[in-house]
């Protein structure tokens, strides 16, 4: 049994390497090879190895610049979701959360058209998961802010307002946190069609906590909807801060 399992492991590894080679020339064959490797691991109870393989597959698709880039991103999303499921089956919650955070990031900032509501719901779930852990609870407010930004980017200020009240209720620290105050300011500016106030809120937040590329791209999109540019204008045409 020991030799058999080791043989299976190396066969799965060999299949994965073949898939990596195929990826350079034939995405269809690569997908078949990766799925075969994952199937081999699952059939033999190597769920953690299947999770790692699915995550590696997602990373390859995400970085692939050949072919249909939007289709590659969608394949990356599917693989990250699969990896998250397998990591959670092995109680690797942190790894699972990281994969789902990548799913939300890609859905909101890479897929065309963006799936902001789906991303918002994922960030919502990640934040709630963090609140269940004493080690991770301080990360919740970051995910809640991302969820609110996705609601606003989708044009759903009502959904954002409801989410803000919900987060205030389940996380007593959120309302007074930098993230909570920033979210509230942005929501107010959107509701009042105040692009200047929006830019000021972004500048004040960025002065203390540097805006990362994801937040910047989402905020630019939100500002366009309230008079800071059009959805067809270039990012450089919108003065965010």
Distinctive features:
241 residues; single chain; 0% strand; 2 domains; disordered N terminus; Serine Threonine Protein Phosphatase 5, Tetratricopeptide repeat; mainly alpha
Q: Estimate nothing, just give the exact number of structural domains.
A: 2
Number of strands: 0
Shape: globular
CATH architecture of the largest domain: Alpha Horseshoe
Order of helices and strands: HHHHHHHHHHH
> CATH class of the largest domain, please?
Mainly Alpha
CATH superfamily of the largest domain: Tetratricopeptide repeat domain
Distance between the termini: 63 Å
Question: What's the alpha carbon Rg, rounded to whole Å?
Answer: 21 Å
Residue-averaged pLDDT, rounded? 86
**Structural class category:** mainly alpha
In the predicted model, the low-confidence regions spanning at least 5 consecutive residues are 1-14, 230-238
In DSSP terms, counting alpha (H) and pi (I) runs of 4 or more, how many helices?
11
Major sheet size, sense and barrel closure: none
- The helix fraction, in percent, is over 70%
Strand residues, percent: under 5%
